[in-house]
Design the sequence.
């Protein structure tokens, strides 16, 4: 019977839960729709349930969707990091010695799309972060804490920016459920918190990735996990260079990632590439190889894996398989 394999402790035959309204929202996905934000009663206080607004106007439905996407991505990183989200997709991500340095690189990843975006850092937000965002309108700016002078400057210069203090400590339950409404029903699944186990990575190309490439591939994989499928992400070791997301085929995502990088003026030569699912054909791989990518990380599992691996070898690419797919719809 359908659903026989479902574990009853996570997905009971009858789902009952109680939620309390946290706040009404300005409007829903569009101005003619009404909306509110609820928190499940008895659930762990994680994610947006921990947010505290420090400044700015009330939230809208889309603000919270993007805020959730940005926080989920930021929680991937233990080192100082900055993220920029636009329409739930990452358009700027970087890690650095400080969040001030990280936000400069994240902004440079896509200085156009950051306008009206959601920006977050995972350390105390200080004046260098505010200075890096001077003249840039962002819908939400969040961090686990703010220095008093940084918060004062934000309030003075960013009247319409919503500012939030929110926990960024990665203490998310391993089997946190997520709910999604569909026409006539409700979908429930565990949140995608799977991380890469280095021991499970499989080098399938003739050339193995260097230590620097492997570090960059891990960074790219974490970002790609949070981009809409089909997703192709080009990065350096510490900075997003180009993102192709939400396309109907993978080769178009690859072309879009390269195009975005070149339009912004970021070099694609020497980057690495992450694909959220396998390459069904070699065409997408050929696009990133021609752009100068040197290494690729992908789940593997295509009927044409051997063709794709051969294409990598032809072009001197290092390729690793994860065995884990990260579709995001």
Sequence:
């Amino acid at each position: 019977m359908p659903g026989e394999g479902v574990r009853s402790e996570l997905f009971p035959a009858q789902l009952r839960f109680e939620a309390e309204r946290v706040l009404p929202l300005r409007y829903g996905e569009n101005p003619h729709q009404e909306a509110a934000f609820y928190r499940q009663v008895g659930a762990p206080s994680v994610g947006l349930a921990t947010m505290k607004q420090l400044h700015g106007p009330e939230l809208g439905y889309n603000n919270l969707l993007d805020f959730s996407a940005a926080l989920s991505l930021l929680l991937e990183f233990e080192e100082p990091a900055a993220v920029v989200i636009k329409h739930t997709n990452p358009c700027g991500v970087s890690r650095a010695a400080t969040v001030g340095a990280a936000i400069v690189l994240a902004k440079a990843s896509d200085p156009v799309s950051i306008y009206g975006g959601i920006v977050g850092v995972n350390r105390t937000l200080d004046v260098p972060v505010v200075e890096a965002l001077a003249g840039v309108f962002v819908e939400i700016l969040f961090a686990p804490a703010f220095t008093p002078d940084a918060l004062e400057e934000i309030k003075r210069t960013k009247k319409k920016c919503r500012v939030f203090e929110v926990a960024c400590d990665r203490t998310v339950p391993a089997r946190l459920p997520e709910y999604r409404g569909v026409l006539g029903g409700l979908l429930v699944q565990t949140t995608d918190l799977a991380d890469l186990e280095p021991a499970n990575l499989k080098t399938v190309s003739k050339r193995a990735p260097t230590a620097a490439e492997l570090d960059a591939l891990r960074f790219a994989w974490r970002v790609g996990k949070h981009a809409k499928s089909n997703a192709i992400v080009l990065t350096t070791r510490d900075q997003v260079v180009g993102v192709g997301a939400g396309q109907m085929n993978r080769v178009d995502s690859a072309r879009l990632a390269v195009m975005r990088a070149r339009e912004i003026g970021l070099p694609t030569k020497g980057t690495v590439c992450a694909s959220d699912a396998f390459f069904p054909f070699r065409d997408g791989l050929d696009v990133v190889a021609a752009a100068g990518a040197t290494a690729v990380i992908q789940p593997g599992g295509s009927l044409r894996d051997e063709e794709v691996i051969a294409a990598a070898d032809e072009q001197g690419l290092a390729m690793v398989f994860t065995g884990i797919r990260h579709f995001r719809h």
